[in-house]
Structure formats: C-alpha cells, structure tokens
C-alpha cells in the first residue's frame, strides 16, 4: 500500500496592493495545488494570514496554526516563497529548524527549496551560512563603531533620563526639565505613591519620557532608585 505524504499549505498577503500584483492568496494557493499534484503530495490543510505583515512570526495565527499542524501530522509545509513565511533569512531558518526537529519538511516554490531532497538541504545549509555571515558582519561593524567612539573619548551607551549628550559626544549635561521630573518622581515615591500611580500621573500630565513613549512602572522604579 502506497502512503501519500501530507502537505500543509500556508499563504499570506500583508496589503491589499499585493492582491493585485500576482501574489494574492488565491494565486499562491493555485501554485501550491499544482506543486502538490505534480509531486504526489496530498494537500490536507490550508492556513492563511490576510493583511498581516511578515515582520514577526508570533503574531500571525495562520502561520502558528500551520506550524503546529505540520509538526503534529508530519509531512511538508508548502509556501509560495520564503517571503510569505518570514521577512528575514534568520527568521526563516528558525522556522525551518522547528520543522526539522519535528521531522517535518519545507517546500518553498519560488526559491525551489525542498528539504525532502539532498539538493534542498544543501541550499538550506548555504542560506544558514550566509545568515551567520550577516550576523558576524553586523557584530564586527558594531564593535568597530564602539572602538571608534572610545578612541574619540565619546560616550558609549544610552543617555540616562535627566541628561543630554554634549555636541562633541564626550560629556553628559543636565537637562533641567528632566531633572525636575526626577525630583517629582522621588517626592511622589517618598510620599507613598505606587509606581503605577506615578506613571499614570506623569502620563496624564503629558510629561514626556526620554524616548517620548508612555511612562511605565519599571521606568519609574529605575529613576527613583538611581543614585542622586
């Protein structure tokens, strides 16, 4: 008795514009169906994410369902392209690693990747090597940039709330408005007000943080506990 390998399809579009540029979910699924038919795969499930960016994998319910499905069933996860799976090679490889640990495979039609074949596995190895090279190169650039700043006696690291960086990048200068906010935080904390209440007070009063984001209890705690 011949056993047919199960295929799980995953399709995604992030914008309405993509639907008119040849990569609509219907177009992706048509290619996937043709691939399964040509390769003797049984398409047993279809998962989709409509109007969701590929920047993060954890906020796409369709992708998470597809991964859980193929990891539980075994078989092959079939996608139109790696760009539908993830935005970066590193993220794609993390997903592929999860599939491999579960004994499942991946087929990406645009890149012609099929991890059920030796050639497909070799291509993945090459992609992994390039991804590692990219990470190493980024680390080297970061190290070089920090070394350059140190050589110029420039400050390395973030500028704390209450201070600004001098024009030459070497000295911290007091920010009067932020120093007043620090004094307010410490006074309110000393009066027994909770961290959340202080954060709510600052947010309601439209007092900005260093980055312009909302105040949070952790930020209040760090400032209140910082040595004067």
TrEMBL record:
Keywords: DNA integration, DNA recombination, DNA-binding. Gene3D superfamilies: Putative Large Serine Recombinase, Chain B, Domain 2 (3.90.1750.20), Resolvase, N-terminal catalytic domain (3.40.50.1390). One of its GO terms (molecular function) is DNA binding. Transmembrane segments: none annotated. GO terms for biological process: DNA integration. It comes from the Bacteria. CDD domains: Ser_Recombinase. SMART domains: Resolvase. The active site is at 14 (o-(5'-phospho-dna)-serine intermediate). InterPro entries: DNA_bind_recomb_sf, DNA_bind_recombinase_dom, Recombinase_CS, Resolv_N, Resolvase-like_N_sf, SSR_resolvase. The keyword Ligase does not apply. PROSITE patterns: RECOMBINASES_1, RECOMBINASES_3. The keyword DNA-binding applies. Residues 6-153 form the Resolvase/invertase-type recombinase catalytic domain. PANTHER family: DNA-INVERTASE FROM LAMBDOID PROPHAGE, SERINE RECOMBINASE PINE-RELATED. This is Recombinase family protein. It comes from Candidatus Fonsibacter lacus.
């Amino acid at each position: 008795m011949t056993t047919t390998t199960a295929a799980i399809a995953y399709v995604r579009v992030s914008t309405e514009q993509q639907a008119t540029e040849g990569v609509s979910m219907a177009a992706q699924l048509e290619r996937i169906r043709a691939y399964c038919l040509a390769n003797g795969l049984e398409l047993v499930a279809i998962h989709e994410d409509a109007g969701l960016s590929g920047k993060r994998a954890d906020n796409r319910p369709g992708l998470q369902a597809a991964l859980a499905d193929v990891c539980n069933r075994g078989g092959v996860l079939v996608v139109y392209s790696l760009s539908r799976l993830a935005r970066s090679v590193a993220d794609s490889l993390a997903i592929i690693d999860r599939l491999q640990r579960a004994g499942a495979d991946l087929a990406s039609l645009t890149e012609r990747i099929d991890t059920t074949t030796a050639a497909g596995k070799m291509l993945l190895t090459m992609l992994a090597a390039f991804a590692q090279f990219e990470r190493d190169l980024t680390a080297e650039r970061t190290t070089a940039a920090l070394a350059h700043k140190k050589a110029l006696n420039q400050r390395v690291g973030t500028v704390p709330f209450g201070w600004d960086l001098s024009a030459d990048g070497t000295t911290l200068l007091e920010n009067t408005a932020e120093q007043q906010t620090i004094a307010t935080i410490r006074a309110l904390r000393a009066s027994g007000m909770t961290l959340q209440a202080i954060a709510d007070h600052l947010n309601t009063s439209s007092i900005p943080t260093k980055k312009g984001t909302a105040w949070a209890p952790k930020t209040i705690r760090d400032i209140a506990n910082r040595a004067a």
